[in-house]
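User: My advisor asked me to double-check a structure prediction for TEX10-like TPR repeats domain-containing protein before group meeting. I don't want to rely on an old file, so could you generate it fresh from this sequence?
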Amino acid sequence: MKFSYQPKKKVSQTNQSLEALHDKHVVALLPFIPQLIETVNAHWRARIRKAFTELFEGCKAHSVRKLVCLSAIGEMLPLIQKQDISFPDSCDLDMCEYLQMWLNALPKLLWQLGHSHPSVSKVVLHLLLRIGQCAKIDSFDALAYDKMQVGLIPFFSLCSERSKDQGKCSYGPFIRLPRDCQELAICCLYYVSSMSSLLLESLARCCLCNLLDRHLVFRIMEVVQAVYRAGHLKIENQISFLVTLIASYDVNFEARGSLSEVLKKASPEGDYNKLTSSFDTYRAITKAVISCLLEMGDPALVLNILLPLITHEMANIPPLDNMSAMLSLVVVLDCEPGKLTKEILITLQRCLPGYLINVASM
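Assistant: Sure, here is a fresh prediction for TEX10-like TPR repeats domain-containing protein from the sequence you gave:
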């Protein structure tokens, strides 16, 4: 008996051809998954969902197969929205569990895609937005959407305790994605029914990043304020977010130098324009923060929550512009002069002389 020898290269090519053929058939079958799940019995539903999930998790982030899987999940949303966890007997709990798995996979997918595959990232963000928009209050998909927000933190920014001490943080793909993807990501935030403080911190770090378009900073502020207005964000967390923007924004002025000294070190045009633009942006942010604070209700109550945060930031002797902005917050909200706390007065006594000297030197 004779055996024909096949070179390794030929075998490899054959395997690749089979894989391509397999992919072609799988991609063709995936659009029918939602209809199959709706029509077959419970036994087959469970098997199909399991196989679909394994396929979804196993394929490459930017592959055609992944895109078709995302489309199939979108088609299954009406089935998911029918589930009412308050009536376990009529609720397909397996479907709910799979939704949670699929949702949890989406932020991870965004991270894997980075900023190199914006078209796929856009599809993922569209799906996230659609899930958020369709979720009813206290429904399973709303609860699943809330749990998913933790996974979004690295997509925006991440900062360990050690990095905080060093004043460094890692920015996620959000910062470098195209504008339309960034807008979609920001819109997704509105549909979280209880925004976590960790996600808020992540957003604040993005707002402070000089790579982020200034218009997106205001867009984030607008959406976060809308989340607060809808009752989905605690007032203390919202105030902390706003104070962070004011206290930590880098206006590019030297903390102990006058404007004239900065301009002497700057090149004739480019750096001056950058400084002016940055300062104008900061002034606009300050106005927006004041507007948000005044919208929150009784200024005295808001000031009561604000003062400990402001006191802490002022004690660190911030740059001139940041100090000025924080003082403006106190002045605007202090509708009853003489009501300032002892702590803030002590801090002001320590900080104001240096602040006034800096102002006089400009």
